[in-house]
Design brief:
446 residues, alpha/beta, 8-stranded mixed sheet, 3-stranded antiparallel sheet, 15 helices, 39% helix, globular
């Protein structure tokens, strides 16, 4: 915890408000450690139970996390708006930042020509009563999903994949319910689960997706929802194989007490076949975002599922945000309908695959087995994340520590390949090998 920020308060409400204020202003940065309950209670002259209630309230809201021997800390992405300067520490001068998990901007389709065409063809403004999912967008979306074997009868639109997942969990679950999530898994999803007051149950992942035994254990532990990444899993690059999909469908078949959510966020960028689980359970939803292939600023995802689930999401949207902008829907439809854009996305997918596979091969030459079957990230197991991230920083590379993505999985680092060039692969692999297996100083036993 910053020595400059002093916690205060005599009640649980005052203490929790002070901590939240520190997070909001940046005085308590993501990952910052808070004092132990008894130590803070002694400093403030209150009972340990008062401090414990304050911490518990902030944990339930997703602002704090208890990290075993590391104590209580601010979550990496606490759900409270902070000053922009506090959101991300500045990178070291000259460092190559491979920590962001974002697509290569140079490979995204240009939006200008399509925006200009829309501007020239804009008709009367859409009214409140006419707004909603554009029929022509729904028709094309259904055809694209059908080509991948996803049943697409009931359909709606959300403001991106994570927005869709939030609406799905909110429509089916209540605070305290358990959600089975991949471990390691998407950091934003882990933070969302915490912010919703839900209880995550980690499911181990290998290159073929969530492991069947792990899903079975989560179900036995009372999971009421299961979130699966179809392809390009973040952070490991896992993709659900045909054999894994068959085994999972058999395990989940007919369950009426479980919401199944599939996230196909990479969509056209994932150069591996899709093996959907859609329809295996009575309540299910399949999400496909446009952000990774076409641009992060395009906040739109197609959501299909069973009638009740889609109706709940659409109904909740109607009484809140109302609808996803029809201007945005028309832009996405134009991108989907342009053969030149299809070719650009195909080239981008091929480029990511070459960079990812090239790094995996270079690491293998150093005796390191990393993971990255699909997508834009490589997941490298390391003995110690802190020393690995520090060693890489000292050689000019910034990567993401695996702790952001893990519940109980082994330590690792995540490397985003989207900005790499061919001549980067060998020096990066050498730096990663050194970071994963540092040479001890002379005189120390190996």
């Amino acid at each position: 915890m910053s020595a400059r920020y002093q916690l205060s308060g005599t009640t649980a409400v005052e203490i929790s408000a002070g901590i939240e204020s520190g997070i909001r202003t940046g005085a308590l940065s993501p990952g910052a450690a808070l004092p132990p309950v008894r130590a803070l209670a002694a400093d403030l002259g209150v009972s340990p139970a008062t401090v414990a209630r304050a911490y518990q309230e902030l944990r339930q809201r997703g602002l704090l996390v208890t990290a075993g021997r590391l104590g209580t800390r601010v979550r990496p992405r606490p759900p409270v708006a902070a000053r922009r300067s506090a959101l991300r520490p500045p990178p070291l001068p000259g460092a190559r930042d491979l920590s962001r998990g974002e697509p290569d901007r140079r490979l995204l389709p240009p939006l200008g020509p399509h925006l200009a065409a829309l501007a020239a063809d804009t008709g009367p403004s859409v009214s409140y009563s006419d707004a909603g999912v554009l029929p022509e967008l729904a028709e094309v979306a259904r055809a694209r999903l059908d080509a991948d074997g996803v049943p697409a009868g009931e359909l709606t639109i959300t403001g991106g994949a994570l927005d869709g997942i939030e609406r799905l969990l909110g429509a089916h679950l209540r605070p305290g319910d358990a959600v089975a999530v991949e471990d390691p898994g998407w950091a934003n999803l882990l933070d969302l689960v915490a912010a919703l007051g839900l209880r995550p149950i980690g499911v181990p992942v290998d290159d073929d997706g969530p492991m069947v035994a792990g899903v079975a254990a989560a179900l036995a532990a009372g999971a009421r929802a299961l979130v699966v990444t179809s392809r390009a899993q973040n952070p490991t690059g896992a993709a659900v194989s045909a054999e894994r999909a068959e085994a999972l469908r058999a395990l989940l078949a007919g369950r009426r007490d479980l919401l199944l959510i599939e996230d196909d966020h990479a969509a056209e960028l994932a150069r591996v076949p899709l093996h959907p689980l859609a329809g295996a359970t009575a309540s299910w939803a399949f999400l496909r975002s446009v952000s990774k292939p076409f641009g992060p600023d395009l906040r739109l995802a197609v959501l299909v599922g069973d009638e009740t689930t889609v109706a709940r999401v659409a109904g909740r949207t109607r009484v809140g945000a109302g609808w996803v902008s029809t201007v945005l829907q028309r832009l996405v439809l134009a991108l989907w309908s342009d053969p030149a854009v299809d070719e650009l996305v195909r080239r981008a997918a091929q480029s990511y695959e070459q960079r990812r596979d090239g790094l995996l091969t270079a690491l293998a030459e150093h005796g390191l087995r990393a993971h990255g079957r699909s997508g834009i990230n490589v997941w490298l197991p390391v003995p110690d994340e802190t020393s690995a991230v520090t060693a890489l920083r000292d050689t000019g590379w910034a990567v993401a520590p695996g702790a952001l993505y893990r519940i109980a999985a082994a330590p690792a680092v995540r490397v985003t390949v989207s900005s790499l060039h061919a001549d980067d692969l060998a020096p990066l692999a050498a730096a990663l090998a050194h970071a994963a297996n540092p040479t001890p100083p002379p005189g120390f036993p190996t």
